[in-house]
Specification:
This protein has helices at 2-12, 82-88, 130-143, 188-203, 218-225, and strands at residues 25-29, 32-37, 40-44, 47-50, 67-77, 96-97, 105-108, 114-119, 152-163, 169-172, 178-182. The chain is of the alpha+beta class. The strands form three sheets. Strands 6-7-8-5-9 form a five-stranded antiparallel sheet, with helices on one face. Residues 210-218 have low confidence and may be disordered.
């Protein structure tokens, strides 16, 4: 849904969008980026790689081996009864999560269902195995014994994109002709909005000053502080 809305807004602003046009080869020729597709060739001064967990392997050297795709799994339960809601003390619809490295998170939906999520299968071949949805349901029931008889109505798995430092990144090559934004670590709905804005500023060379410079080393700061 969000993708369709974004496409509509982009077209209204004058952008041309060609869906189902995968890049099969990428070359650089005389400072031009040359992208080959099944039905034509695109030449551009600047290219944005707007991607995340579904980035093809070895797509571009700027992104190769810099992120790790991880399967995320969610379930949506049956609607809870007023008694179950009271027993579990669900008073908010805000997202709640723990502090584990592989986190569990949940929230109460408007129709009193519980969306509960965590990590899924290790490989894509096992992504649809019901074992992983059942495991999440078992964890939910362990956390809230009043939900012992509850079942889930929906389950979904999909790839998220993990960065080594658990932070999203906006970057460009030295020639400032290829840009990317990725590594949202499971929080792409919120992070990608801000990243899209900052990435557009980078491409337009109108980036706020605080985003233009590298972070300084602590060592030089401590040396100055100590008079060294």
């Amino acid at each position: 849904m969000r993708s369709r809305i974004n496409q509509k807004l982009a077209r209204q602003a004058g952008a041309k969008i060609h869906c189902a046009s995968p890049v099969t080869d990428w070359q650089t020729d005389a400072n031009k980026q040359v992208l080959h597709t099944p039905n034509g060739i695109v030449r551009a001064d600047k290219v944005v790689i707007a991607t995340n967990g579904y980035t093809p392997k070895n797509f571009h050297h700027l992104t190769t081996d810099r992120t790790l795709p991880v399967l995320s799994q969610i379930i949506v339960t049956e609607p809870l009864t007023p008694e179950q809601l009271a027993a579990c003390n669900f008073l908010t619809a805000n997202v709640v999560m723990d502090t584990r490295a592989l986190k569990y998170y949940y929230r109460k939906l408007p129709d009193n269902r519980i969306l509960f999520g965590g990590r899924g299968a290790i490989t894509g071949k096992s992504a649809d195995d019901p074992y992983y949805a059942q495991r999440l349901l078992s964890v939910l029931k362990t956390s809230f014994p009043a939900l012992a008889g509850l079942n889930y109505s929906y389950a979904r798995s999909g790839w998220i994109c993990m960065a080594l430092d658990d932070l999203p990144h906006i970057h460009q090559n030295q020639q400032q002709s290829v840009f990317y934004s990725m590594g949202y670590c499971g929080s792409g709905v919120s992070f990608s909005v801000q990243a899209g804005k900052r990435l557009a500023e980078k491409v337009a060379e109108n980036l706020c000053l605080i985003y233009r410079y590298r972070i300084k080393h602590y060592r030089s700061f401590l040396l100055r502080l100590c008079g060294g």
